[in-house]
Amino acid sequence: MELLAPAGSPEHLRAALDAGADAVYLGGKLFSARRFAGNFSNAEMAEAISEAHLHGAAVYVTLNTLIGDVEMRDLKAYLSFLETLPLDGLLVQDLGVAALARRLAPSIPLHASTQMTISNLDGALFMKSLGFQRVVLSRELSLPEIKKIVEESGVEIEVFVHGALCVCYSGQCLMSSFMGGRSGNRGACAQPCRMPYHLVDDKGHRYNHDGDYILSLKDMMGIERIPDFLGAGVTSLKVEGRMKSVEYVYNTVAAYRRAIDEAERGRQADTEPLVLSLKEEFNRGYASSYLDDHIGKHMMTALAPGNHGVDAGRAEQVKGAVFRFHSSIAEIPGKVTGISYETDHHTMAFVPMKDVEERKGTFTVRYNERPKEMGTVYFVVEGKKQSTAMKDRKGKIPLFLSFEALPGKHLTTTLSDDKGHEVILSSDYTAEKALSKVTSEEDIRKQLGRLGNTWFTLAGASIHNEGCMVPKSILNHMRQEGVEKITALRQEAHEKTIPGKRAISFTPLVTSPFKKEGPHVVVRTTSLDQVEEGLSLGLSHFLFGGETYDHRSIPVKDYEKALSLVKEKGGTITFALPRVVREKNRLKEDALISSLAALSPDGMMAEYPGVIHLWEKGKWTVPLLAGTSFNLFNGAAVKEIENWGLAGAMVSEEATIPQIRDMVKAASIPLSALVYGRTEMMVSEYCVINSVMGDRDKNHCPRYCMKGSYFLEDEKGARFPVKTDEWCHMHILNTRRLDMAPYLGALKEIGLTGFVLDLRAEKDAAPVMAAYRDIVSGKKKAPAPSSKGERDITRGHFFRGVL
């Protein structure tokens, strides 16, 4: 089982290798999902690959962001450069990038990023059919789900084991970009989930009781579950942390290296000291709740989103300006700089060690903010600094040598390593009997063993000298040549193991053609009443179904009714499908999709890759379209889904008008865009309503969401509606409605055909439908944009791009 480590810079790379990583992932200066990490220049990347392969470690380059058409020239040059390197894998999110990588860098195995939201077996099988070597699963899956996908997919499966977690399904978050223009899909997330919010109802009542950081997840720690991962057959365990410290990388990888080695030997590691060492590094508190499908408030770091430190005890005897706590921790290796603790105001406070006195394990603390009685106290630890000097590396490669000097013979040296590689060197220099001073065996050993600035260390030496004087310069040259040759052998041995190009087995879909029409309004709804209302207003295009916002399932009879209503009026109806389907719900959803396909609607809209696998397997002829969850951001991505046989698509909600124009020019299929409605900012397995209202977890929830309306209120008073669907996913909607009515003319000019009104969160939808009908048809002019009365309106990213 591979231990995969983060490498945000060359220093991080060396720390990971030193600690025993089997592989590292790193990004270049462009197109990396950790834009603010140090990252690697082209020269540094080539050196990093050489250094890693010397250790037998793999290098995966992250190219897992969305790429705009204006960036394609740089992307193509970058891919051509990567093709010149012996890379072990390329991690991608953008479908256009994947298509270009197959053409320009065909020797590099492709890995499907977690940003692709592969959350079930159908998705993994589809990526395998596209020639992907590896799939990185969504972090929300439980161990039984992971095990099933591993057993039945036949593709390498990578899962996250340690580090920061997104509260939203990766690849589906728009909150950062809509709030501040920094896109998580572009590697520039501003982490709005780490900001404070209040849960409020429609009357303005606040429900927070245990802190305000109610979207801030604790970090993942799976070190105690290593045997379970091994038993599930997982290929690779990924540690998050390209923007963490060098010490964090070394200490975290070292802890997991020990746990994995013990598990692979069939032994249970003593994880208590390993857990303690992990807590000494930056952490927001730890949880592994997704692995057990145990999702609730215990996963949140509600009091503060920053570093927690090491659990020290509980605040007791709060009197006057002091409190006490008892700690059973015998020794903390790092330097304790202070303690943090929970306050009476549901916040975290810090006290430096100068204000803390200790006597026989009892600590007395002078505080400014009153602590919560029996609240948790933490030691804040400054971890041990790691020397970055090569001479101080602990993970060096053992080298064994033998040397022989015989009068009248060439000097010979044999070097071998721990993997059985051997190099035999013979110098041009002929040894002669020393006239005065014989070079001692100790001096020869010392000179040949000067390996301090390399990744090698002399583990054993056999020296034989029959009275010769041996020049130091000759020994230096032989040592250097030997190191170069043994390095090359090790690198070549690793590079022979890199998988070749994986064959594509996917057969493009053969479906009925989707109706090509001029510009038209599309009503997106889950309500039969809104379908009837739209028809009565003369609208003819509907997108029906998908997730509801009222925690109910849409029965098949409602789809049948919607189809009947629309067809009676000669209209067009497409059935929408959910954005995310976990493996535990896959069979139920697959059965529903099969039932819906049997109804023969005009089309069906996929939101996750597994649907395409179902279409291929079922040989269904209903036209299939791609929804916004596919994050179509460039013309190459559009051409890719065309090659799959998809009949239409919605463009990314982060695309600007010029970007959409480029996609339309590249497309042979009709493209649509969302132009009205409350944008889904997040879709999450976690539910903030359940968490704040105080129940144990989602498995014991009395469904508060069905008894009232709830919102997340930020520090500025903006309220984001919170909805739940039939799968108990939380959907956070934008506080402001998207409304592009004044700019429909510009959108028509660039060639968009579908103007989608998402009315799932609207009560009085008739005026909106009528207004858009009249503008798109040309019956009325679009209203002039105005700053007055538009405080609750957004234009999304049509005019402002994303970082």
Structure summarized in a few sentences:
With 803 residues, the protein is of the alpha/beta class.
Percentage of residues assigned to helices:
25-40%
Shape: globular
Strand content: 15-25%
The separation of the N and C termini measures: 36 Å
Largest sheet, strands/sense/barrel? 8 strands, parallel, barrel
Rg on CA atoms, Å: 30 Å
Number of strands: 37
Instruction: Please state the average pLDDT score.
Output: 94
| Coarse structural class | alpha/beta
Number of helices: 21
Looking at the chains present, what oligomeric state does this protein adopt? single chain
Query: Regions with pLDDT < 50 over 5+ consecutive residues?
Result: none
Instruction: Please list the strands of the largest sheet in the order they lie side by side.
Output: 1-2-3-4-5-6-7-10
What do you see in this structure?
It is a single chain. It is built from 21 helices and 37 strands. The strands form 6 sheets. Strands 1-2-3-4-5-6-7-10 form an 8-stranded parallel barrel, surrounded by 6 helices. An 8-stranded parallel β-barrel has the order 24-25-26-27-28-29-30-36, surrounded by 5 helices. The protein has a 5-stranded antiparallel sheet with strand order 8-32-33-34-31. Helix 6 links the parallel strand 6 and strand 7 (156-163).
Key descriptive features of the protein:
single chain; 803 residues; alpha/beta; eight-stranded parallel β-barrel; eight-stranded parallel beta barrel
Write the layout of secondary structure elements.
Blueprint: E1 2-6, H1 10-19, E2 23-27, H2 42-54, E3 58-63, H3 72-83, E4 89-92, H4 95-104, E5 110-112, H5 121-129, E6 134-136, H6 143-153, E7 156-163, H7 175-180, E8 198-201, E9 219-221, H8 226-232, E10 236-239, H9 246-264, H10 271-279, E11 286-287, E12 310-314, E13 316-319, E14 322-326, E15 335-342, E16 348-352, E17 356-359, E18 362-366, E19 376-382, E20 397-405, E21 410-417, E22 422-430, H11 441-448, E23 456-465, H12 472-495, E24 520-525, H13 528-536, E25 541-545, H14 556-568, E26 572-576, H15 586-598, E27 603-606, H16 610-618, E28 624-626, H17 635-644, E29 648-650, H18 657-666, E30 671-677, E31 680-684, H19 688-693, E32 710-713, E33 719-724, E34 730-733, E35 737-739, H20 744-749, E36 754-758, H21 766-777, E37 793-794
Parallel strand pairs: 1-2, 1-10, 2-3, 3-4, 4-5, 5-6, 6-7, 7-10, 9-11, 20-23, 24-25, 24-36, 25-26, 26-27, 27-28, 28-29, 29-30, 30-36, 35-37
Antiparallel strand pairs: 7-9, 8-32, 12-19, 13-14, 14-18, 15-16, 15-19, 17-18, 20-21, 21-22, 30-35, 31-34, 32-33, 33-34
Helix pairs in contact: 1-2, 1-9, 2-12, 3-4, 4-17, 5-6, 5-16, 6-8, 9-10, 13-14, 17-18
